[in-house]
Structure formats: structure tokens, C-alpha cells
């Protein structure tokens, strides 16, 4: 009983000591880009605070460790690895993942409010063009971008066609990127044309981890 009480008290102390923490401008840019990708913001109810879930395939351990180094002051424990066996006949493979979760803090509530509707579905903020920066774009692409010949896809199938066209409009207006929404078997995704490859490199190279240079052939061309 005493050990259980000590554990509860320790967690309460960690949370209460961090309740007045704020998000720096750089971390804000990173969170905006990450929210467009794989990052999830969990809030149990309107009276509770929000915690963030960062999760990647185990092959992207370097990326998760990088993110944890940025957000560790907002966390209670380091990244954890996990594995799951997919027993479907066409898979039959074990998959590894690595993740970390922040504490539930008031400073994260804004991201839940911006990127989720009242039903808990992820959406796009109306002021996304104002929020999105080159650094945000780099983290979005590290999360969900993949190379296609000399062009680049961003996996945005979870968003509607209208939302994909909204993203395309922002990328064109704010960053002068030639792109469009391409249909796929399970929705639509943003496609950045090869004609904008050099422009995209100039925008995101300062923020891209070397682990992801292959997405724009940066290791061989720069």
C-alpha cells in the first residue's frame, strides 16, 4: 500500500510541477507539422487536459528519440518499444514500434481543439495556412512523406478530398509548391510534383534529420 501511494504521489508531483509549462515557438511549429501526420492528441473529456502520443515504426527509432529529446520535459517516462504479430494470411509477420506519451497538460489542449472536432475526428484548422511553417512542413514530411521517383507523396488519406484540396491550396499559396490531390484506393493524398523538388529541398533541408534524407535524395545530391 505504501509503495502504491508513493507511486501515485510521485506521478501527481510530476504533473503538478509541470502544469504551468508553455510550448516554445519552435516546439509549436513541430507540433503543427506532427499533428498533420501521425501525432495524436488524447483528451478524456472537456474538463481534462490533453496528452500527446508519439509513435513510429521501430525503423524510425532515431526519429522518436529525436522527438523525445525535444519533449522530454513534458513527459513522465522515456520511449518504449513494443511488438505485435500480424497473423493475417497475407502478412504473417511481427511488427515493431516505438512510442512515448506526454503527461496530460494544459499547454497541449490547444492542439486537441485545433485538430479535432467534437466527435474526436482529426480535422484541419481553418487557420492552417497561418500556422504552417517550413519547419512544420519538414516534420510533416518526416512523419508521412515518401518518395515517388523524383516527386513526393504525403499520406493524407485520412482527410477528405476537400481537406486534401485545402492542403494543396496552402502548399501552393504559402510555399509556391506545384502539387495536387491524387486519388488512391482508400482516399486521396497530396502529391508534390518533381518540378518543385528543388524548392521543397530548400524549404525543409535545414530541419530534416539525416535519417530521412533519402526522401529527397539529399544524401546523394547535397
UniProtKB/TrEMBL annotation:
<protein>
    <recommendedName>
        <fullName>Homing endonuclease LAGLIDADG domain-containing protein</fullName>
    </recommendedName>
</protein>
<dbReference type="InterPro" id="IPR052500">
    <property type="entry name" value="Chloro/Mito_RNA_Process"/>
</dbReference>
<keyword id="KW-0496">Mitochondrion</keyword>
<dbReference type="InterPro" id="IPR027434">
    <property type="entry name" value="Homing_endonucl"/>
</dbReference>
<dbReference type="GO" id="GO:0000373">
    <property type="term" value="P:Group II intron splicing"/>
</dbReference>
<dbReference type="Pfam" id="PF03161">
    <property type="entry name" value="LAGLIDADG_2"/>
</dbReference>
<dbReference type="GO" id="GO:0004519">
    <property type="term" value="F:endonuclease activity"/>
</dbReference>
<dbReference type="GO" id="GO:0045292">
    <property type="term" value="P:mRNA cis splicing, via spliceosome"/>
</dbReference>
<dbReference type="InterPro" id="IPR004860">
    <property type="entry name" value="LAGLIDADG_dom"/>
</dbReference>
<feature type="domain" description="Homing endonuclease LAGLIDADG">
    <location>
        <begin position="29"/>
        <end position="198"/>
    </location>
</feature>
